[in-house]
């Protein structure tokens, strides 16, 4: 059962509709009780880091999600700000992140961007997986995904970087540590590329 964590942010219906088209069982959790029976979790997110962390706390699901991920080792996929929440902290705010993957969220250095409109990084871009990984099965070449962000995840450990994208300079766009996965782009908005990645996550 894929369970989408609905704490007030993210394209919940887009994830649900994609999984229904893939004939994958999916549910939406709005309370800690809704998380019972989850075998995989998706943590979506849009907007600001601190606001997302605050809403997750206020939802009453923070501790239950942390228990599932850190103790029971339920696979989780963070998406966009949901990926940034996996880090220890962010330059965008003051609240601590979930700390499931060692790293810090940083703002793009606009001096490195050769574009008239620097931020946000918005639109379609190529994604390059680093090595073989099940999350990017059948997406090793020519995979493009939709991005909308001004901050990126800087991993403390190189082995936690799953994929990179170039925007002025290369940056980490997908991460993994044990049962924790994250993607900076929006698979739910990325047509067949995104559907393949979401299917891959359900098959992990």
Polypeptide structure, described:
It is a single chain. With 204 residues, the protein is of the alpha/beta class. It contains five helices and 13 strands. It has helices at residues 12-21, 49-58, 62-70, 81-84, 191-203, and strands spanning 2-5, 26-29, 40-43, 76-79, 89-90, 103-107, 121-126, 128-129, 144-149, 151-155, 161-167, 169-177, 180-183. The strands form three sheets. The chain has an eight-stranded mixed beta sheet with strand order 2-1-3-4-13-12-11-8. The longest helix is centred in the last third of the chain and has 13 residues, at 191-203.
- Rounded to the nearest angstrom, the radius of gyration is 16 Å
Given helix and strand content, the structural type is alpha/beta
The ordered string of helix (H) and strand (E) elements is: EHEEHHEHEEEEEEEEEH
Range of helix content: 10-25%
Provide a count of the helices: 5
Overall pLDDT level: 94
Strand content: 25-35%
* Strand segment tally: 13
Largest sheet: 8 strands, mixed
Give the overall form: globular
Low-confidence stretches: none
Spatially, the strands of the biggest sheet line up as 2-1-3-4-13-12-11-8
């Amino acid at each position: 059962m894929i369970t989408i964590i609905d704490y007030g942010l993210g394209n919940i219906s887009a994830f649900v509709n994609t999984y229904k088209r893939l004939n994958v069982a999916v549910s939406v959790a709005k309370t800690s009780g809704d998380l019972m029976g989850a075998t995989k979790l998706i943590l979506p997110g849009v907007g600001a880091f601190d606001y997302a962390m605050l809403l997750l706390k206020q939802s009453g699901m923070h501790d239950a999600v942390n228990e599932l991920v850190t103790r029971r080792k339920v696979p989780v996929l963070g998406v966009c700000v949901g990926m940034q929440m996996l880090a220890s902290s962010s330059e965008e705010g003051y609240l601590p992140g979930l700390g499931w993957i060692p790293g810090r969220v940083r703002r793009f250095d606009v001096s490195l961007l050769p574009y008239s409109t620097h931020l946000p990084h918005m639109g379609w871009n190529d994604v390059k997986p680093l090595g073989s990984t099940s999350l990017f099965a059948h997406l090793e070449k020519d995979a493009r995904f939709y991005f909308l962000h001004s901050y990126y995840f800087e991993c403390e450990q190189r082995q936690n970087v799953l994929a990179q994208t170039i925007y002025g300079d290369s940056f980490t766009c997908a991460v993994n540590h044990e049962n924790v996965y994250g993607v900076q782009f929006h698979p739910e908005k990325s047509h067949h590329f995104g559907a393949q990645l979401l299917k891959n996550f359900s098959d992990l």
